[in-house]
Amino acid sequence: MGHMKPKLYTISNAAGMSLTASSLGGIVTSLKVPGPDGKLHETLLACRSAELHHGNGYMNALIGRFGNRISGGGFSLDGEFHALAQNSGGKKHPCSLHGGETGFDRCVWNVEKYAGAEGPCLAFTRLSPDGEEGYPGNLFVRVVYTVTEDNAWRIDYLATTDKPTVANLTQHAYFNLNGGVRDVSEHVVQVDASRYTAVDAGLIPTGEVPSVEGTALDLRAPTRLGDVFARAGRDKLLKGASGGIDHNFVLDRTAPGLAHAADFLDTESGLAMQVYTTEPCVQVYTANFLTEAVPARAGQTYGKHWAVCFETQHAPDSPNRASFASTRLDPGDVYRSTTVYAFGTLETDDCDCRGDDCDCGHGHGCRCGNGK
Ligand code: GLA
Questions:
Q1: Which has the least CB within 10 A, 33, 99, 143, 264?
Q2: How many A from CA of 15 to the centre of ligand 1?
Q3: Atom of ligand 1 nearest to the CA of 290
Q4: pTM, whole model, 2 decimals?
Q5: Most informative mutation of 168, 289, 310, 313 for ligand 1 (most atoms within 8 A of CB)
Q6: pLDDT tens digits for 219-232?
Q7: Coil, helix or strand for 24?
Q8: Pairing relationship of beta strands 281-285 and 246-251 according to DSSP bridges
Q9: Which domains does the chain show, CATH number per domain?
């Protein structure tokens, strides 16, 4: 399928929200949502062409078969070892990252456009052959992007296999609610997670799942990212993740199903985004590896801390960690996962605080109404 020429597809709802994605890696090249000014706002960073996204932090691509890192050269299933390409971490901390050398972000998918019950859809399908990137089993994958009529980007993942295997699919969207004109210091983030998976110097989980209490990863209350970045040079956890957040947060879910995971808002554009997921965890990544050399959309320059990724997932290295929720998929079972990025605007009416001297945490200029 690799020889097929990638094509771009656009879907939009009645409010004008639109999503453009490539058949290459399901890469989203544009996601525009209505703002408080009634205009459409770009919410994702992007490169000049989808072909450039792999080398620039997997920007806005579908990730598979396994999101994030697998250590130890591979994993064992039913006593059989499956070696994986060591495509990250260099000589010191080799690991498999985001599906290997040619992960799902580099594959050309079959795309079907149709009208779904909640809004217009793009369905991406692909049969990942047995042994692809070292993973066992023919894995059939179907991922549906919906632009819902209430201004959300909904992603439904489905996979089936003909041999026992592992699967952990996600989307690596780089959100910047300012349209990518500056970094995300004035954005506010909140994550429903009391615990995170601790990592070693190679960003591989140690198996410990400590509390966020008292750490820079306590994002349970709305937190201005500029304040997090200001600590990044001194704080041990942030330093260890190349000067920012790049951690797997374990969500405080009380029941299975679609649940709120995070809030992301920009006090300057007045745009707000809520993340909902059926997954147990989310990798929050503040684009610590992004450089100014990113071949960005015409006329733009990006750099470190210019976006936040909310990669909903099972914990990294789960195939090697029996204590983590299992990522195993057996023949006859169906892998299903749903994530919703729901867009809205900050309330503009009933907050006198303007953020300057208020508990809301949103920072200067905020008009959220959640303060005192
Ligand atoms: C994930 C990882 C990061 C980094 C990015 C891609 O967020 O956790 O360490 O590899 O993907 O650059």
A1: 143
A2: 33
A3: 12
A4: 0.93
A5: 289
A6: 999 999 999 999 99
A7: strand
A8: antiparallel
A9: 8-357 (2.70.98.10)
